[in-house]
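Data deposition worksheet. Section B asks for the primary sequence of the deposited chain exactly as it was used as input, without tags or linkers unless they were present during the calculation. Section C holds the resulting structure in token form. Section D is free text for depositor observations; keep each observation to a single sentence. Incomplete worksheets are returned to the depositor.
Section A, Depositor: J.P.
Section B:
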Amino acid sequence: MERSELQKVAHYKAEAEMYLHGRPQIEIAAALGISLNTVKRDLKLIQAGWLEKAQADFDKKKSQELARIDWLEQEAVGAWFESKKESTVTAVKSLTGDRTQRESSIKKVKRTGNPDYLATIQWCIEARCKIFGFYAPIKFSATELDKKIEELLAAEKLASETAIRDSELASDQLQ
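Section C:
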């Protein structure tokens, strides 16, 4: 018996819910009055849809983050160039005596630019490279990994011994 589109949609929803609750496919088929092969075929379609939606959501989120990084970088570039422009300093001096006189001077100062903006630009480039996967994973051999673990453990032990010694010194000084 051929199912109508409305029945298919209702079955897909019920099948997905039962599947997510861990019910066996044979029980799903019996509950809905459809064949086991129909349930298997429907679940393949449902899972493909989930995967497609997850990929679309991931791609959308990735695009949004890239757009935010692009905007931040544009702002930082603009601010960098603005921070390099000459600045004008105006000074007004009032002289009092028989007559009040005003003296003003204008001084132009050449600026080197704020390096914080360059750091932001660098961060944007690195973040974009990470999103695109340009950085290769770091690979360690088993011996290198063991050595790294030993170094970390030794550093942690030293830090805890130092903290204990410092707290003992502090308590001795309080007494």
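Section D:
The beta strands are 87-95, 101-109.
The first strand starts at residue 87 and ends at 95.
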